[in-house]
Every structure is written in C-alpha cells, then in structure tokens.
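Researcher: Good morning. I'm working through a list of sequences from a screen, and I'd like to move beyond sequence-only analysis. For each chain I'm collecting a predicted structure so we can compare shapes side by side. This is the next one on the list. No need for commentary yet; just the structure.
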Amino acid sequence: EDMFRENVNIVSEALPSAMSIEVYMTESLKQVVKMLSNFKEDSRGKIQLGSEKALYINFTYVMGSLTIKTKQIYLTKGSTGFVITCTASRDGHSKFLKKFNEVTGTFRFE
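Model: Good morning. Structure tokens for this chain:
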C-alpha cells in the first residue's frame, strides 16, 4: 500500500534581479540538496510549458522509511522565479506521471 500522498505544488518567489532559468535552478538546487536526505539526481533537461521555456530535474530522496521521487520544473519571468514540484513515492510515481504532466501542462503566465 502506498503510504505517501502524491502532490503538486507551485511556489513563486521574488528574485533579487532578473536571472536566467539556468542560474535560478542552479541556485535553488543548492538549497534543495542541503535540505533533503540522500538526494540523488536521476535526470534533467529542457521542457516547454505552453509557450514558456523551462528546465526540469528528476530526483529521489529519503523521508523516514520512504524513498520519494520528485520532478521539479523551473521557470523565470522578469524578477520572479517559479518552481512546480510533483512528488510521489518511488513505487507510486509511474502511476501518477500522466496526471503530473497534465497538471504541469496547464501552467500559464496571465
């Protein structure tokens, strides 16, 4: 039985100045790696969300007795950074991947 509640979160933050997605992701990941136990990167690359260019990273980490699989998508617009985080247990991730892609595919700047 999957004991983890799968979720999608969107966080926006004011940046000190306009910066590229690459710089924003690199700086953000420095903090992520410090906060998570047994962080292990699986893959990363470029992605298109509607008309927006973005970067993504897939990684796992350990929380208690669970291995968590996460996809984070990074975007910037002016001096605002956005991170979309899709999280599931490692065993349940493939079951929710289609839903995660549907949800993240609706992201738009209005």
